[in-house]
Amino acid sequence: IAAVVGHCYPPRGGRGGKGVATSAGQLLATLPAFAPFEAVVGVTTGALVRPGRPGRRALATTVVACAAWIGGSIVWWRRRLPNGWGVEPTGALPLASVASSAVVMSRFWHSIRDGLPDDYAPEA
Predict the structure, then answer these.
(1) First and final CA of the chain: distance in angstroms?
(2) What digits encode the pLDDT tens for the residues 50-72?
(3) Alpha-carbon distance 109 to 7, whole Å?
(4) DSSP at 34
């Protein structure tokens, strides 16, 4: 979780922006069996949401992917599903997914609020 925070909010004043990639790495390390489902959810959401206001597609994809990650971690923990090479599912798994998702969502919200351009906006 500290790595996600550090990549979203760099302590030395950098731009950040690698939090999504770092949280994807966290997902692969802690819940590898769910990673393929998460990838499908992210790609499908990104394809279905039409660009509009700046950051709309990125924010929608992030919200849905974070919700899927949290939901998946709860299911894996409660049902004690096999987890590939990852850690044994415990109550810490959903807590870590909630914490990392909150940090990533916070960063996206601040970026959109500050008016950063939409990476999917069509050019005229």
Answers:
(1) 40
(2) 777 657 777 888 889 999 999 99
(3) 15
(4) G
